[in-house]
């Protein structure tokens, strides 16, 4: 009869949360397996047995991040009744999450990525894919606004608008990491939403607006 292995003496969910905290604080390349073992309170062999390699563990950490700190912005996109309200609330939820006093002030999707080592290429691509998913989610919400009738932007412009607001999200994270306060980020969001009407209006409306500005002598 085969001998059963010893039961785990740690809670995998708690250990995963501890790994998330460490990766979030130090990034992927700044976190070693020994660092993880110490933070999680388990041996390196237990990490491999329960979670796989460091890369496997990081992927599980990012899944947890997506269902916790990463969820409020996505929920805003799903639940707000109009495309404009959804984008606005997504930006505000992002700013809320990246300025919380109990977590590092940046989005892991954007700033936890490795930058140099060739062996970390797969992790860089994994995070790039997640950021592309974010872009797709924003674009899909804009398309839903067109279908629902609250957004009049031509379909061909939705990708550019989605990329613009994705860029704002990423910029908010960099600003927060560099010390911007929640109030300062709100001012950025106000500016970004001030561009909404120009970005989403039909080309004929934009031409009319430009002609009016020209007639008034505005730049």
TrEMBL record:
Pfam short name (any one): TetR_N
Domain of life: Bacteria
DNA-binding listed as a keyword: yes
Residue range(s) of DNA binding per entry: 32-51
Keywords: DNA-binding, Transcription, Transcription regulation
InterPro entries referenced in this protein's UniProt entry, alphabetically: Homeodomain-like_sf, HTH_TetR, Tet_transcr_reg_TetR-rel_C_sf
Matches recorded under Gene3D superfamilies: Homeodomain-like, Tetracycline Repressor, domain 2
Keyword Transcription regulation in record: yes
Chain ranges of the HTH tetR-type domain: 9-69
GO molecular function: DNA binding
Annotated protein name in UniProt: TetR family transcriptional regulator
Organism: Micromonospora deserti
């Amino acid at each position: 009869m085969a001998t059963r292995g010893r039961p785990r003496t740690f809670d995998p969910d708690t250990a995963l949360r501890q790994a998330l905290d460490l990766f979030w604080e130090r990034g992927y390349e700044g976190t070693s397996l020994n660092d993880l073992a110490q933070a999680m309170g388990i041996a390196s062999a237990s990490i491999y047995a329960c979670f796989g390699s460091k890369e496997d563990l990081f992927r599980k950490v990012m899944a947890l991040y997506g269902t916790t700190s990463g969820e409020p912005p996505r929920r805003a996109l799903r639940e707000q009744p109009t495309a404009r309200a959804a984008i606005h609330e997504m930006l505000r939820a992002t700013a809320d999450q990246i300025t919380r006093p109990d977590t590092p002030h940046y989005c892991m999707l954007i700033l936890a990525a490795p930058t140099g080592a060739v062996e970390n290429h797969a992790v860089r691509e994994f995070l790039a894919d997640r950021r592309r998913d974010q872009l797709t989610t924003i674009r899909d919400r804009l398309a839903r606004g067109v279908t629902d009738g609250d957004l009049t932007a031509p379909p061909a412009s939705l990708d550019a608008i989605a990329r613009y607001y994705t860029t704002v999200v990423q910029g908010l994270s960099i600003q927060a990491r560099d010390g911007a306060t929640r109030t300062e980020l709100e001012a950025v969001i106000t500016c970004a939403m001030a561009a909404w009407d120009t970005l989403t209006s039909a080309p004929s409306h934009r031409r009319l607006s430009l002609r009016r500005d020209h007639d008034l002598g505005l730049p």
